[in-house]
Amino acid sequence: MRLLEGKTLLVTGASAGIGRAAAIGAAAAGASVAINYSRDDAGAEACVAEIERAGGKAIAVKGDVSLPETAGEFVARAVEAFGKVDVMVNNAGICPFHAFLDMPVETLERTMRVNLHGAYFMVQAAARQMVAQGHGGSIIAVSSISALVGGEYQTHYTPTKAGVHSLMQSTAIALGKHGIRCNSLLPGTILTDINKDDLADPEKREYMEGRVPLGRLGQPEDMVGPIVFLASDMAAYVTGAALLVDGGMFVNLQ
Ligand SMILES: NC(=O)C1=CN([C@@H]2O[C@H](COP(=O)(O)OP(=O)(O)OC[C@H]3O[C@@H](n4cnc5c(N)ncnc54)[C@H](OP(=O)(O)O)[C@@H]3O)[C@@H](O)[C@H]2O)C=CC1
Ligand SMILES: C[C@H](O)[C@@H]1OC(=O)[C@H](O)[C@@H]1O
Q1: Protein residue whose Cα sits closest to atom 5 of ligand 2
Q2: What is the pLDDT of residue 62?
Q3: Which InterPro entries match (predicted)?
Q4: What percentage of residues in the chain have a pLDDT greater than 70?
């Protein structure tokens, strides 16, 4: 029996990176999968095609998570296709690296709206559906090691990652009576488009790699096992928790 057999899992921001790996990994674990994305039609189609080629079921629903109506539409389309929602992986996010003193207001506001407001709307829409279904569920927010530590060019971003972790702590309390578990995943530095430009500087990349006791930066696939675990009934008594998946980067003081 596969860990997510019979479950419907939704994941936001799955046209690339961690979300894409989570969607494909969850489908391989038996879930029917609905993915959200906002711009990359080809990436979303490729994700769905890869799941279907492997014998799984998937749909893609386009929508900007910063808009409140996107969340309700996403959940409704998933229910239409698969009949229910068991797991929501809130993953969509942006990190436009920028210095603090001249941070454009638009960059600050966009980052907050996509990463934090988007998470709030998605988690709320999924929870409403799960409560109506009456058989619990699992909500996973992709937070970050950046919920715990700062970044010189991430002053607009790290508060959003602390925010989604805090959202999971509060919703774990609000939704526990409905059997809905809420947890955060805290990835370290994972090689995706979000940091391609930042890590194009060989010195920066070498420095970041050097901070990881396991000796390498993460791949999106490194996030799949922890996400499938938190989504599955193996984690039936895990709620309000934060799972750091960073190759040991956080504890590496000296
Ligand atoms: N990579 C890393 O080192 C780390 C990443 N994270 C977090 O992981 C999550 C995924 O990041 P990662 O995979 O690295 O980044 P990528 O840039 O590779 O992927 C981001 C995904 O989010 C989607 N997206 C962006 N904006 C929106 C939006 N407004 N509405 C809907 N979808 C959107 C993108 O789709 P499209 O282009 O189609 O809109 C894409 O599918 C983020 O929340 C990030 O903060 C956390 C810790 C470390
Ligand atoms: C985008 C960064 O490389 C990435 O995002 C995070 O949340 C981690 O802190 C990494 O720095």
Answers
A1: 189
A2: 98
A3: NAD(P)-bd_dom_sf (IPR036291), SDR_fam (IPR002347)
A4: 100
How much is the pLDDT for 1? 85
Q: Which of 83, 86, 56, 61 is nearest to 72 (CA)?
A: 61
The answer to whether the Cα torsion of 167, 238, 92, 175 is positive or negative is: negative
Residue of 47, 64, 70, 91 to test ligand 1 pocket, by largest number of atoms within 8 Å of CB: 91
Tell me the mean pLDDT in the region 80-103: 98
Look at residue 80 and give its three-state secondary structure. Answer: helix
Question: Quick check: CB of 95 below 6 Å from ligand 1?
Answer: yes
For the segment 179-197, the average pLDDT, to the nearest whole number, is: 98
Query: Domains of the chain (ranges plus CATH)?
Result: 8-245 (3.40.50.720)
| ipTM rounded to 2 decimals | 0.98
Say how many Å lie between the CA of residue 143 and the centre of ligand 2.
10
Going through the chain in order, the beta strands assigned E by DSSP cover: 8-11, 32-37, 58-62, 87-90, 137-142, 180-187, 242-245
